[in-house]
């Protein structure tokens, strides 16, 4: 982003954008400024062709402990607006993350609670360190679930387990989160950076257009019939077959080498 960020660190390397939530003194609890900066960053990554993968993580040994409930009237959007308006602005951040047309990875070390857990689950892939912890903490704060959790959880783990997490607000270990089906991989604390770097690098070297269309189809799959899903697949493949990337992949297969994808 062009202006200096107050709550985020954004780093770019070889097509991988790493966005680090940077309020370690609050375990990266998100105030209004952070939500606004995340919204702008997600929009930027979505439209910059040089950005191929988004990695979302937190500084100082935590992922994100949720919304900063001490931020007063600045929840999200415009400070001082009615809470319903601000919560809709918070929902816009969740939608922007969901709609980033590129693979996204949550790199979770430490706590991911409340909206922080929902934000991790809103990424396409979740990699957690062994010491990380997850909680839909909302009910312990007298709140309902938010940041898309009411939509994400039933689709990921089924309605009964979703209600268990939301009603009791228990803290799950990384292993328990994996058993629930919330986490793709649990790795030793010291291996978290290297593992995510490896996955992000593989995705960044993949075919951007094909991966984008695959992500969109999978995201829409629960709303489609089999007939409709097959039609979407046909349309996507028709687009792929006319791209330079697919031609490159076929040539690389014939020539027994790795393809170089350019996203065109």
Compose a concise summary of this entry.
This protein has 264 residues and is of the alpha/beta class. It has helices at residues 32-47, 83-99, 115-121, 149-157, 159-168, 174-180, 192-204, 208-220, 226-240, 244-255; strands at residues 8-13, 16-21, 53-58, 104-108, 111-113, 125-129, 133-135, 172-173, 185-187. Strand 2 (16-21), helix 1 and strand 3 (53-58) form a beta-alpha-beta unit.
Structure characterization notes:
- The chain is an alpha/beta fold and 264 residues long.
- It folds into 2 domains: 8-204, Alpha-Beta Complex (2-enoyl-CoA Hydratase, Chain A, domain 1); 208-255.
- Helix content is 45%, strand content 15%.
- The chain contains 10 helices and 9 strands.
- Strands 1-2-3-4-6-9 form a 6-stranded mixed β-sheet, sandwiched between helices. Strands 5-7-8 form a 3-stranded mixed β-sheet.
- The longest helix has 17 residues, at 83-99.
- The radius of gyration is 19 Å and the shape is globular.
- The chain starts with 7 loop residues before the first strand and ends in a 9-residue tail after the last helix.
